[in-house]
Amino acid sequence: MSSIRVVKQLLEANEDCSNEVKEILARKKVFAINVMAAPGAGKTSLIIRLIEKLQPHYKAAVIEGDIAGQVDAEKLDRLGVPVVQLNTSGACHIEAMSMKKMLTYFNLDDIDVLFIENVGNLVCPAEFEIGEDMKLAIVSIPEGDDKVVKYPLLFTKADLVVFNKFDMMRFFNFNDQQAEKDALQLNPQTKVFRTSCQADGGIGTLYDEVASRISSKLEEV
Asked: Residue 110 contacts by C-beta under 8 Å, 6 or more apart in sequence?
């Protein structure tokens, strides 16, 4: 019973901090995108492609979450956008308290869009709200089409679902129609996209959706 209470208190404390983060971002007119996927699904590559298309219209920044190292942060830094590396030292997700601290490293008045590349994991990141405006979940074709049904919480919460590395479909037995059906059964409001960062396939369509949501949110505030 005590362990259940502790977990509940932890989640409640995270939710309170998440609301604080959301208020800060709303006040500063920053749209936050929480990008979640397994290791190797192409989170960094997809963020790079989206930023490249966003840059003429919006000023972007990135929080790069990893258990250790800064390889992905170095790739993002080459875009010339502000990047802060968050090493969780073993934790499998980013929490709202860490998110709130990371915001102090940015000039939020000079940012329109903040990407948060969460730690590579299909379970823990979905459990913690971090003040984001949008959750983007990625499944890469080599991972298999069963990930949606095996890890339902992430896809229940995801605003957008991306089947990435779609140019590799011919090499893998990935039933994208069934995977899309599974995602929509979990969350009828989600939208599913198919992308290839190497061939630039589908990036434009995904960008249009992301840009539309950014524009709508910034106009509200």
From this structure: 59
Q: According to the model, what pLDDT value does residue 68 have? A: 61
Largest CA distance in the chain: 53
Q: What is the pTM of this model?
A: 0.91
Give me 201's structure tokens. Answer: 């396939």
Closest by CA to 17, choosing from 102, 131, 125, is 131
CATH architecture, domain defined by 2-220: 3-Layer(aba) Sandwich (3.40)
Taking 50 as the pLDDT cut, the residues of the chain under it are 1-9
Report d(CA 112, CA 139) in Å as an integer.
Answer: 26
CA distance 179 to 209: 20
CA distance 14 to 65: 17
How far, in Å, CA of 36 to CA of 136, rounded? 6
Using alpha carbons, select from 167, 189, 187, 163 the residue that is nearest to residue 176.
Answer: 163
Question: How does DSSP classify residue 135?
Answer: E
Domain residues of the chain, as ranges?
2-220
